[in-house]
Each structure stands twice: as C-alpha cells, then as structure tokens.
Write the structure tokens for this entry.
Amino acid sequence: MAEVTKKLASGGLAGITASESAICLCGAEEESLLYRGYNVEELAEHATFEEVAYLLTRGKKPTEQELQEYLDALSEHRQLPDALKETLEKLPKETNRMDLLRTGVSLLGNLEPEETEGTAKSIDRLISTLPSILLYWFKFHFEGKRINFHSVEKSLAGYFLTKLHDRAVSELERRALDVSLILYAEHEFNASTFTVRVIASTLSDYFSAITGGIGSLRGPLHGGANEKAMDLISSFNTPDEAEAGVLEMLSRKQLIMGFGHRVYTTKDPRSDIIKVYAKNLASETGEHTLFPIAERIDEVMKREKNLFPNLDFYSALVYHYLNLPVSFFTPLFVFSRVSGWSAHYKEQKENNKLIRPLSKYVGPPPRRWID
C-alpha cells in the first residue's frame, strides 16, 4: 500500500498497473508495440487497417475468406440513417469536429442500440459509420451537397480519401493513410481507452463507452497533439527559422507538442514508420519545404532536450500532404482508435469488475458545521 501511495503522489496514475489485458503490449524497455502479439512494424508493412481491426476486435488474424466477408460487411454499413443525416445538417458549420463525432455516435446509439450478444455488429457498424458521419456533415455544410455513400473502395482509407477529394487517389496516398490508421489503432491503457473501460465496467452500453472515449480524446493533451504539431511546423518558412523559433520556445519553457511519451523512454516505435510515408508523400507532391523543417525541429529537440518525436509529429505531415484539413486530424485518430476501444470494451465486459480506485485525501481535518 505504501508503494501505491508513493506512486499516486506523482499524479496521473503513472506507473500504476490497473488491470490485465491480452490486447496490447507497450514495452518501455524494448521500445516495442504489440497488437495481440504481433509487432506493429510487421503489421504496418504487411497488413491493412481492416485486418488489424479484425485482429483487435475478434482476437485473431482473419483468414482470406473472413477478411473478404469483413470488408463486404464494412462496405454495407457505410450508409447513415435518415434521422442521423437530418441531425448532421442541423449542426452548426462551426461545430468542433470531435463534438460532431461524439454527437453522431450518441445518436446512432439511440437509433440502433446495442443488442444483447450483438456487440460485434455494433462495432462493425461504428467502424464503417464514423467516416461517413464526418464526410456527410462536411460536404453538406462546406460544399452544399449530400454525398452518395456507395464506393468501389473497400478500404476505409480509400473510401475516405476518394469521397473527400472527389477523385481517384494514388496507391501511396491510400497506403499512407492506411498505415496511419494501423499505428493509431491501439495503445494499451491510455486516457481514452481507460475511459472506455471504466464506462464498460459499470455495465453501460457500447455507444456510451465510445462516446466517453471520444470526449477523452478531444483533449489537447491526448488527441490534439498532431494538430498542434502541424501548427508548429507550418509556422516556419525555413529549417534555420524553425531552429531559432524552437530554441526561443524552449527558453520560455513552452511545451513542444509531438515529442516524448509517457510510456516510451528512447523512441516511439511508430514514429520512424510514419516518417517514411511523410518523406515519400513530400516527394510525390513536390512540396519540399515542410519536411526539412520538421526534420530540423526533430534534430533540435533531440540535441537540446533528448526528446524523440512521437507518432503525432510526422503523422501531422502525412495528413497535410494528403490535403486533409487540420480539423480532421483528431477525428482520424477516432476512426482508427475505435477498433482498440472496442476490443477493450469487450475484454472488460468478459471479465468485469467495477473500476473504482481510491483517492488520497488532502482536505481539511474533520470539523463541525455550525449554523
């Protein structure tokens, strides 16, 4: 108990093991990341996001037939209910994109509530529906049209990019987004995942748990880092200007978003993977300004603070090269992480115990109430 109390004093439950899980291993010593035992580097090289989503939510790698059936099911689930489309049309144009997804998920939970023993169907439905929610709202309010959800694209990445840009996309564009979704899909007991598990532990429903996860991810210290990283990179015109600017920020003790991690100590194993796609997209698009700026910021942070870029830093560049609005960066995180959240929701329900930690009281001593 003394050891637990000492660790709690550091805040944020740092170092506290809350429960067991068979879903993800974030290895601080080996600086590795495993999904259901599979190394994330291998998944990013050989798998698709849909295969990873199946692995996380079903607990096993799909066979070729199972994958095809899964892709077909996801494609069929993209259509939105009329009541949901009507609500999206009524939401203000200024709506925060995360608030939009939170509302969409909550409403879908009313229109298509989770059925007993039917969680898998709700999970598949939500993985397919989230991109459609954002696309429908965006196209209606910013382009004045109602999109057709039909698409020959089987992958989430291909579907989202072609519908957003109204054009065919290159294989590099499709694969870059696909790999990004793989890398963001799961990461153990982070803030949003733990929120999902806490809600699940009360025996609440699936849609309530995911709505809570979105609310947790909305915070800039968790889900908004890639947006802040893009703001930082794009604020400079040259690598030299970036170095001077970051040094000035460090001298003022300002937080540089996109660097360091609560779990990893020397590197984020996902960062090098997504950095390659950022570099390749820079070459394909012919934009040769921002990537060198990002690399210089990376070098300065390593030299001055011995900090490494996390997944968010170079992911911001990938999304920029894919011509995605910055306000879409965190919603894309949701598209991916819902697969991990869903896996944790199921795991919590399968061996449930109400999550109810203690707090260390630091208030006033007992006192009398006098009228």
Summary: Confidence is low (pLDDT under 50) at residues 1-6.
